[in-house]
Amino acid sequence: MTENAGLRQNPARIRILALCSGNSCRSQMVEAWFRALAPERVEAFSAGVRPVGFVHPLAIRVMAEAGIDISSARSKPIDDFLGQPFDYVITVCAPAAEACPVFPGKAVRLHWPLDDPAEALGCTVSY
């Protein structure tokens, strides 16, 4: 059985795609939280309109501090998901909201503007 073979086996699960510009922080974290908090009810995915090719190390660290491992996550382009059905497409930054294509079916588009954690200033030392 392939990794994606059971994606629509449970029709009660909703499919969510989180989009940001680079798919390195915000959308990765949204995907991970949905997967951690509602694995039996949600199929969560994330992508970027211009993926940067890596998941930001501080996003991995912050999620690990919350008990969620995203160290094996990868930055993915939105093209990987075009043509797939989603119930919700959530953009988490303005560039993604502006560039987001129309998804087929009944996908509801939501915009949750989140500050980019990669741009945060301050100390990275844990106390």
Task: Please give a quick description of this structure.
The chain is an alpha/beta fold.
Q: What are the main properties of this structure?
A:
17% strand; 3 helices; 4-stranded parallel β-sheet; single chain; globular; 127 residues; alpha/beta; Rossmann fold; disordered N terminus
Characterization of this structure:
Strands 2-1-3-4 form a four-stranded parallel beta sheet. It is globular, with a radius of gyration of 15 Å. 33% of the residues are buried. It has three helices and four strands. Strand 3, helix 3 and strand 4 form a beta-alpha-beta unit. The protein has 127 residues and is of the alpha/beta class. It has one domain: Response regulator (Rossmann fold).
Would you spell out the secondary-structure blueprint of this structure?
Elements: E1 14-20, H1 26-37, E2 42-48, H2 57-65, E3 88-91, H3 94-99, E4 108-111
Parallel strand pairs: 1-2, 1-3, 3-4
Distance between the termini: 45 Å
State the CATH class. Answer: Alpha Beta
- Beta-strand content: 15-25%
- Class from helix and strand fractions: alpha/beta
Radius of gyration from CA coordinates = 15 Å
| CATH architecture name | 3-Layer(aba) Sandwich
Helical coverage, percent range: 10-25%
What is the β-strand count? Answer: 4
CATH topology: Rossmann fold
Please, what is the average pLDDT?
Answer: 84
When the domains are counted, the total is 1
Bulk shape? globular
Q: DSSP helix count?
A: 3
CATH homologous superfamily - what is it? Response regulator
- Poorly predicted segments: 1-7
What is the N-to-C succession of helices and strands?
EHEHEHE
For the biggest sheet, the summary is:
4 strands, parallel
- The strand line-up of the biggest sheet is 2-1-3-4
